Amino acid sequence: MTKRSVKRVAAVHDLSGFGRTSLAVVIPILSTMGIQVCSVPTAVLSTHTGGFKDYTFVDLTDYLESYFNHWKKINLDFDCIYTGFLGSSKQIDIIGNFIEDFGKNPDTLVVVDPVLGDNGKLYSTMNDEVVAQMKKLVRKADIITPNFTEAAFLLNKPYRTDIKISELKRWLYELSQMGPEKVVITSAPACGVAKTTNVVAYNREDRRYWKVSCVYIPAHYPGTGDAFTSVLVGSLLQGDNLPIALDRGVQFITGAIRASYGASYPKREGVLLERVLGNLNMPFIISSYEMID
Question: How many domains would you assign to the chain?
Fold first, then answer.
């Protein structure tokens, strides 16, 4: 891999002209953290799909292979490949080949955010075929970051909000057996703890389980999952270990939601990212991660 002073990430996500999701949050977060983002737009939309109607959509699946062939010709390499929303099984196949071609170097970190659904349901653009293909893509990853719903679909488990931490640990372990060394599940229920949600993680290398708890704020903002994984990726590329990266991600998203919750604007636009980007360069106070026995 070429030596360079700035880390380089290939970010495979869709691009919305309006709304703070996908590349619209990935690029500013990683750039603020001192990392070069090389965008791979899988689709271009006038707005994101969460809360907007009649949006325009251009599928770039047929363009991706020539896109990657040009990158091969100019000998690009990456410190990280980071994938998010993929809109079809064909697209997942193409991205899988891209990971095999550009992720051969053992120093290249492959992060897959398996975007499939939320609140116990698949997104309207997803189906069982896409879930099956996503399971194959997960095998190629070093790290995956499903939310609780997506973890259930990847494991063919029922969606239950009364799940206990011992069962969550089992889910983490079973997901790691699919291929990734590190597994992070976001928006996990905190059984028996009111107004709290958890991010839980497992590192197969040292067989440790981690948890970061945060106060549940009763508001939904599209793009927070993209923002969390972006901070996680940036933190790991800066040299942080997994629990610190988890802590940084949760603190950033919690701050972004708090900064947005009191403001009067449509929540479908996403968090007020511009108000909190500077937090990424402030001294970090380790405060909330804990190891799960």
Answer: 1
Which residue, among 188, 117, 176, 165, has the nearest Cα to 141 in the 3D structure? 176
* Whole-number percent of the chain with pLDDT over 90: 78
Angle between helices 165-176 and 148-155 (to 10 degrees): 60
| Separation CA 54–CA 293 (nearest Å) | 48
Q: Which of 188, 186, 171, 259 is nearest to 229 (CA)?
A: 186
Instruction: Please check whether residue 106 lies inside any domain of the structure.
Output: yes
Query: Which domain, by its residues, includes 85?
Result: 8-292
Q: Is residue 95 part of a domain?
A: yes
Which pLDDT score, from 0 to 100, does residue 235 have? Answer: 97
Q: What are phi and psi of 84, to 5 degrees?
A: -130, -125
Residue 186 domain-assigned? Answer: yes
Q: Indicate which CATH number applies to the domain containing 140.
A: 3.40.1190.20
Q: What is the pTM of this model?
A: 0.95
C-beta of residue 157 within 8 angstroms of C-beta of residue 171: yes
